[in-house]
Amino acid sequence: MQKMWTEIDAYIDSHLIPEDPILLQTLKNTEDNGFPDHLAVAPNQGMLLQMLIQMNQCKRVLELGTFAAYSTIWLARALPEDGYILTIEGRDTHAALAQENINHAKLPQTIELQVGRAADVLKALPQDFEAFDFIFIDADKQSYSEYLELSLNLSHSGTIIVLDNVVRAGEIINSKNQKPSIEGIRDMFVALKNHPKILSCTALQTVGSKGHDGFALVLVK
Ligand code: DHB
Ligand code: MG
């Protein structure tokens, strides 16, 4: 099935996703430096993130898990010129690549890249740090429920939280798989259920060039 999913994504992209030299350069630079491309969102997923931001006229965005900043550039593209993104990456090598790609993009929005474990960086923010309008959680999967709680503390009523990779080719329902990354996603589902700070949430499976996976979507109460 993977071949067909990839071909259909290519068909969708060729019709609906305009070629963007900066995003193409970001992918090329990532590959040229020997980093895997499967960690990045697909172009049609990047567009979905962009549209969610546009629909809600968000100005302040938080991203956990920058990787090569491909998604970061999609997020920035959706913001007005005075928009702000705080993006956090745990691995030095990824952060160096991301900073290079961000510099190269020369976008007017402010993109602040911090290196460190996302939970530590978030806990170190000042108490009065202004809440985010949109949060994309895409860092280490074993910490998703912790990231969700920290994100909710940095949200206001109406903040949207998107969590990537919540299906993992169905491994979430394979009870024999007890990898921390999979257990982390299961803990996230438990945390989402009846959470007092959440107005509504859902999760959607996706198939495409990045395989079979899914997003969870949260609207903060
Ligand atoms: C992995 C991480 C991601 O965020 C993703 O979108 C795909 C794969 C991974 O760690 O394998
Ligand atoms: Mg991801």
TrEMBL record:
GO terms for molecular function: methyltransferase activity. Gene3D superfamilies: Vaccinia Virus protein VP39. InterPro entries: Cation-dep_OMT, SAM-dependent_MTases_sf, SAM_O-MeTrfase. One of its GO terms (biological process) is methylation. It is an enzyme of class 2 (transferase). It comes from Acinetobacter albensis. This is O-methyltransferase. Coiled coil: none annotated. It holds the Pfam family Methyltransf_3. CDD domains: AdoMet_MTases. Its EC number is 2.1.1.-. Keywords: Methyltransferase, S-adenosyl-L-methionine, Transferase.
